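Retro notes
What went well: the complex prediction finally ran end to end.
Inputs used:
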Amino acid sequence: MSTYRYPKRQELFRRAAGVIPGGIYGHFSPATLVPPSAYPFFTARAEGARFWDVDGNTFIDYMCAYGPMVMGYGAPHVEEAAEAQRRLADCTTGAAPVMVDLAELLVDMMPAADWAFFAKNGADVVNFAIMIARDATGRDKIVMIEGAYHGTTGWMQGPGHHGVIEADQHQVIRIPWNDVPAFEAVLDRHHGDVAAFISTPYHIPAFADSQMPAEGYWEKIQALCRRHNVVLIVDDIRHGFRLDMAGSSAYFGFSPDLTCLGNAMANGYPISALVGCEALKSTAARVFHTGSYWFQAVPMAAAKANLVKMGEINAPQVMLTRGALLFDAMVNIATTYGYDLKVSGVPSMPYLRIADDESLMLHQDWCAEGTRRGAYFTPHHNWFISAAHTDADIQQTLEIVDEAFKAIKGKNLPIEC
Amino acid sequence: MLKPDCVKYDLKVSGVPSMPYLRIADDESLMLHQDWCAEGTRRGAYFTPHHNWFISAAHTDADIQQTLEIVDEAFKAIKGKNLPIEC
């Protein structure tokens, strides 16, 4: 099996570095793609579960645009709906009728949704949720989970991050995941001051295993929120529609007041949503929050078509089932080479690492060897699969996985045996 | 009591003409200006009362001609209804 080289990428990145801060910034930055020499950086074309880089190499995509791609790049049901709307109107004066259709669809699909509000990115609706919670409660403080990612606004990023000032953190209290007594202690210490508890449905720290909710965790958090009139916000942007079409809170059996959605909603078209309970609808109506492109009709039409189709095939179940087969097989291959591959989270968006690899270099090397053979693996972020990953894609991936383990076995021996 | 024929509207246009802010002067309650925008909108020229407007490079001479006819009609309509301005 030959391995990829990236001469054109190198030239393009050199140009990028001349005119773009960091060359490529944010979650696409090469900074966490270690070693960067193994990664393509740029995507020239994409179709189904695959993308092609500027050097003509092709990859089976296990990042799915870091979440938005869920039904395959260029999925016809989405593109046809988007094209039909594009012929009519997109970014115009006035809201598009499809906005009402999409809101009704979400309200029908999700028990936690009595209304829906649309924006572009996850942070847009997380910030809106916080504003609603503060206006509804008349309180300032936000409780969140240590190591949780909710976007890049000052308060969301932890202290010490560049551009984040101490005042950004004044109203934010961080507690460990799965720690109900810590939440009780905060409610006691800041009695009457906590506006909201915000968390992802299960914990997805970077550089660490995903952590599922402990038995009874959400039930207890919900009960505490209700007792203390704290608004319960679920950031379902990354998990949403990869666990359950009714929302990840339905998957785990609890009822948030506000749910932030995005990513997989429109198979890559730019749209996010906040959905919420009836009791907060009038507050949501009076908190002013908007953006130049938030009423774009094409992403709304794409989201509507995508969610309908995902519901028809129960796409989350397809991904969970197919992912379980794939990752169980990967673990078995790892075992044959003497490696302990840890898979955490759910199989539609798992976090993988090779165990007993404190420096992380063995795992990085394995991901790099997979990527250079055509299965796009990143070392420190959870992966994603889509409903468009075919059996053939999975078969080819497993062959690559075997080759990648063989390659690292030949180079490194950091694990005792 | 003022007479209709002594009413003069002073339409103030500020900012640059590609994104101007319009208001009818001497209209403290803003209701006259709102009414004029509404009469224009209901005749097919989309005017909003409290935000700057925008034009595009696609607004043709024909669009502008039609707009001016609507503007004339809209002023005529409010003239017939309101007399809040001293003269």
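What we learned: Chain A has two domains: 7-62+315-411, 76-313.
What to try next: split runs per interface for comparison.
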